Amino acid sequence: MSGVAPSRVLVLGATSAIAQETSRVFAAAKARLFLVARDAEKLRAVAEDLQVRGADAVDACVCDLTDTEKHAALLAHAAEAWGGFDAALIAYGMLPDQQACEQDSAALRLAMETNCVSVIALLAQVAKILERQPGSVLAVIGSVAGDRARRSNHVYGSAKAAIETFAAGLRIRLAAARISLVLIKPGWVDTPMTAHLPKNALYASAQSVGHGIYQAILSPQAVVYVPWFWRWIMLGVRMIPEPIFAKLNW
Amino acid sequence: MRSYQSWGRYPKSEPSQIVPLYWLSEIQALCRLSRPVLPRGQGRSYGDCCLNNGGILLDTLGLDHFILFDAQAGILRCEAGVSLDAILRLIVPKGWFLPVTPGTQFVTVGGAVANDVHGKNHHRCGTFGCHVRAMEVLRSNGERVLCTPDRNVALFQATIGGLGLTGLILWVEFHLKPLTGPYIDSEQIRFRKLEEFFELSADSDKSYEYTVAWVDCISRGEKLGRGIFMRGNHSTRPVDPQPEKNGKGSLLHGFDAPEMLISRATMHAFNTLYFHRQRRDTLSSVIPYDKFFYPLDVLRDWNRLYGSRGFLQYQFVVPYDRRQAVQEILQLIGRSRQVCTLAVLKVFGEIPPAGMLSFPRPGVTLAMDFPMRGQPTLDLCERFDEIVRTNGGAVYPAKDARMSAASYQAFFPAWQEFAQFRDPHFSSSFWRRVTAGE
Asked: For A26-46, what is the mean pLDDT?
């Protein structure tokens, strides 16, 4: 379905900055959007915004997606309401405090459940409803952090790496049903999640990343880096031998 | 990377903390913040009314949600951090336009209200604040106040033109203007002296919605006060199906140009070329609205052309019958060694301002850019202030980085009345400067 804008889009984690910016592009293209997020007030603000920005229809459902028990019912409801989806985007996550996770198993577990377990569980469930819709696209947000573990950020990185491995397998399965699975790997993005970090010239705006994801859903490839130059940065980073990489102390 | 300097990049400022805001439902109690706060949008104010040295800036750019758009009635409600360029992308294809627009589209709605901005249609439509139907203001005591022209009127009037000091504007609802198409039927007319400008302006304001003039502030003697008058109306020309271009090119990529770029010699050459650019005295054209309203937006960071010391903009208004003050000020520039790089002249209309501290008032306004060259530049502006005061005029706070407290208080006698509505937790570098000693 390359180049044809999907008309029914399911956005999971719809209040994240990257999800909002992606949805805004879909809204401007007059898509119908089914939004899921856990905070009712924020979700309402996003739904109103997308309606004004031109969405053909907006439906919103409050759900904490880290609760994997709820996935099946939620997706069944959404699929029934709209008769299926042409695209789905899984776009939530948190930036855990690495040091806290090293000390506290509960913090580590929460980070892995949010960024990894629930996302993988959701991928499996969304795949089930998209399978009935040949030509549809499933997009999930990974990270360049999953390409190589860093001393300072490997709780987050390993969760994203797990998503990549799972997605790669699922992609093979879905290909048989003519479903595309796109793994989006954003680099550094200026969002609320990174608001507390000092910024450098490699930081991209959430808006530009949203446009990149929209394009990636329109013309699906297996793995898409946004912005594109991260593909080459990460190629270089992956080639650094471990003893040297360790000394860089990233 | 976000810079928290002002557009003129003078004076330099260091906030103690930046608090980014993303959700109306999640703004933390402002009174719990330990220092004075100031809302901050795109930072397009030239001087220090968008700075809060040593204080806290509330970055409102994350408050960028639209709330409601009535495409039948032409009413838009959005959060305060939505910028005018985002609004235009939404409304122009639907046949609507901003009721009033300043010379850049990269300002937030909150900033447009807080500075009660004006545009080339002031003689017809007044200021931005004249078109606000309602807004919600969050005070530091946690109160959310709905302000309209009929409800909480005093706070409504204090907030329009209130420089962000009456509390945090959460959202704004305002009237749009119906549009016949995205083009402007424009005319550029050369004039050789100020009297010609005033004649052209008086004549054009009757039949043209938008009028403004560029003035050559470098040439002296006979050529003093020459310029190009621009006037326009919305065109009925249908839309060309052409790809959307975004005027967001970056010229300098975050670097300052060398200061020698702007000198009397280079500006004299530029002004002469610009004045003679059109062969005939009158040039008519149909141009896209963004080219007409926002010619400088094409270069996203043109302020960096002035080098690391930045620049000052001086904008004043004097009553129409005191318009000789414009000539006096141009002569003063001619006698100084300061280089006026850009000057824009307009006659304001009679529509009363919407805000307690609004700058626009009936008369003639001139805005001039000067590269900051230290004390001599400041001294020259001080002498402008004297002329403006003598003639019962005022200087525009949104552009100002240097006027004295005495001048400000003379220009804005309502400031004491306004002070009652200022939120005690809110302040800015500008406010501390112009109320120093109180």
From this structure: 97
Catalytic residue check, A225: no
pTM given for the model: 0.93
Which residues span the domain enclosing A243?
A: 8-248
Please report, for the domain that includes residue B250, its CATH number. 3.30.70.2520
List the domain range (segments joined by +) for residue B243. Answer: 183-399
Residue scoring higher pLDDT (B260 or B154): B154
- pLDDT by residue (tens digit) across B163-188? 999 999 999 999 999 999 999 999 99
- The β-bridge relationship of strands B282-288 and B183-191 is antiparallel
Residue A249 has pLDDT above 60, yes or no: yes
Contacts of A41 in chain B (CB under 8 A): 23-26
- Give the mean model confidence (pLDDT) for residues A162-173: 97
Q: Is B93 in CB contact (< 8 Å) with chain A?
A: no
Domain count, chain A: 1
Q: Count Cβ atoms within 10 A of the Cβ of residue A153 and give its class: 0-12 exposed, 13-18 middle, 19 or more buried.
A: middle
Query: What does the block give as tokens for A71?
Result: 């996935």
Angstroms from A5 CA to nearest CA on chain B: 18
Q: Which pair of structure tokens corresponds to residue B241? A: 């199906």
B74 in a structural domain: no
| CA trace torsion A46, B112, B310, B333 (10° rounding) | 160
- With beta carbons under 8 A apart, name residues in chain A contacting B72: none
Is the complex ipTM more than 0.90? yes
Over range B360-367, report the average pLDDT.
97
Q: Which residues of chain A neighbour B69 with C-beta distances below 8 Å? A: 52
Q: Does A168 map to a domain?
A: yes
| Contact yes or no for B65 and A200 at CB 8 A | no
Report cis status (omega within 30 of 0) of the bond before A96. Answer: no
User: What CATH number should be reported for the domain holding residue A93?
Assistant: 3.40.50.720
Q: Cis bond leading into B11, ω under 30°?
A: yes
Contact B212, B344 (CB under 8 A): yes
Confidence of residue A3 (pLDDT cuts 50, 70, 90): low
